[in-house]
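Protocol step 4 of 5: obtain the predicted structure for the target chain.
Materials: sequence only (see below). No template structures provided, no constraints applied. The aim of this step is simply to have a reference model before the mutagenesis design in step 5. Sequence pasted as it appears in the construct record:
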Amino acid sequence: VFQDTRTHINAELPDWPWRFETSSIFGRLDTFVQRCRDILELAGSILAFQQLEKVEVGGGKGRSLTMLVNQIYTEFRVEQDLLGSIQNTLFDPDDKSFDRDYHRFRAKVIEWENRLNVVIVQSFETCTTVISKLSCLDNFGPFLERGVIRDGMPLLFDSLLQSFSADMQTVHDIFVTYKSKPPIADNMPPSAGILVWSRSLSDRISVPYQKITELQPQLLTSDLGTYAEQQYRFLMRIMGEFETSIHHEWTQKIDSSAAAKLSQPLLKKDPQTGSLHVNFDPSLEELLKEVRYFLLMKMEIPSMAFNIYEDGNRFRHYIGNLELITTMYNKVQQILIGVERPLVETQIVELDAHLQKALEVYSWHSARVSEYLGLTLSMVTELHTKTLAMKTAAKQIDELTDSWVTPPILEKPANKPVTFDSDQFTADLQARTDSRSNKVEGDSARIIKIVSRCNETIGIRKIKTIWKDYVDYLSQIVVNNSIKMVRVSLEYIHNQMEICASTARSDKDGMTPFIDVRLDLNDKRVSFIPPMDRSSQNLATIFENWIDSFFNMSAVTKRLDGEGDFLLDLCNSHSLL
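Step 4 output (structure tokens):
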């Protein structure tokens, strides 16, 4: 109003101009306005320096530069607390104490900004990538428009744009070099893999470009900025055209044959081995992956491909069940041996007839496939369980009886190298025999339980011939390991006798005899203890008792068919003769 009035009077009465000085009328108001500006400047400085609390500088000098920032922040907090403790009438223009405190704080701010400028420049110089340089500037964003820091920014911005241009040139070279055969991750489908590679290159330049426009939009108006913008738009255009061409080529590959492949049977059989395999065409699996990645990249999908993709979860459910079915079925066919197969032959025949539907009737578009697969999985699981029960029983029996083999039943104690007399040795042998016999007897009881559990799992009557044949197979495992047990002990005696016979003195190589045979002269008569004549307790009888103790181990081993023991089997073994 004042300005309009003065202008109007000066125009209407040029000889009588308005001569009132502005300061005489608005002096106090101007002082108040300046006070408000000072308060705003003070508040802006406080808000800016408060953000230094969480600043961490990276790079090779990151630790030392972060310490400098923390030191500046600590000094700022001291001055802030001091400023807050001073009682001033902020909005009273006549209170000059605020001006004194404000200018003192302002001098500190200028000092801190000078020191921060050094930190920013050094941190920026240690950055090796465009993103790291942008992160550095973003850390100190509130200070980029302040005082001496603002004055030094043009040089840093030029360096940033030069790095950005160099990075875009690198992206251009990579794109031109590899676009004919891009590197694709092993788990990626071909077309989507190419687009992911192209998108990674475009992200490498688009992310920094977006940050530059957010941080300092005016940077792109300089000469370097204009050139960088042209580079960016050129690269984004050629990579966009490349992605469009790849997407178009992929859509052209999709034809009616994709849907036709869903009419194929669920399973196929290998003519060489007879093993079953899931018959889901690899091109359909690839199609599902392609569509999934294209959707993530928000690209258009042909209706036929999208319709197949919508059924993807159902197909994956089918494939998962079929993989379980074929894995168990093929394993059963591979591991069953002649004596085991008759026990599950009925289930195998029924399952083969049931699986024939998956080989000829059911396709990926058929109705009630889930119910069919559920029943099939139940049947093959039952067959697989019975097969594993037979295999587990044989393995457990073999492991138990194999533990009987070593060490030899007759063995000179290592901690008693001296020679025994016959009574001492007989007592020691009896202790060893009792210990081994107790183990064999206990394991024999466990073997009976193992066979009984196997029979319960298979669910077959014990009087059937096929079950008896299987029990004979298990019995032969027991017999074989029992023979090994006896042979190890016999070979031990044989080896000891060979060593003693081949040396002049039995203790020459640290070997000592099993027992002492004492020679006595009584009334010109020679006698041996133990006797070496034909008496019942002569040395030959003792030796025979040793061997009998080995064979008698099988006497405590109950036959798996519940009829006697395995002693006769060992006695008739040609390998022990």
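Step 4 remarks: Confidence is low (pLDDT under 50) at residues 504-508. The two ends are 135 Å apart (CA to CA).
Proceed to step 5.
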